[in-house]
Specification:
4 helices; globular; about 55% helix; DUF1871 family protein; about 0% strand
Length: about 100
């Protein structure tokens, strides 16, 4: 996945809130051990793009499964609950915007 700068926070692009959501989920399990807080920033711009296009939790969950496997080398089945919760929470961020 190409890393794109997610840009600044705007009403339509809640970058900071999404970063906090991803760091809270922390699928790799490294944020609590002092990893940089931009560890998951590579996911922010694509998720925001999908939200702008009207994606719902199932579409975001499919994206996250693919990225966990391909980019992070994780078994997405072991992260199923986190994927689903994060997808729903991301869509809720859009609704708040």
């Amino acid at each position: 996945m190409e890393h794109r700068d997610p840009g600044p926070d705007t009403a339509d692009r809640p970058v900071t809130a999404l970063r906090e959501l991803l760091n809270s989920w922390d699928p790799i399990g490294i944020i609590e051990h002092g990893a940089p807080h931009d560890e998951y920033d590579c996911l922010i711009a694509p998720i925001l793009d999908q939200l702008e296009d009207g994606a719902e939790p199932p579409e975001l969950a499919a994206f996250l499964r693919l990225e966990l496997a391909d980019h992070f080398g994780l078994d997405p089945e072991r992260q199923a609950a986190g994927i689903e919760a994060t997808s729903r929470a991301a869509v809720e961020l859009r609704a708040r915007g």
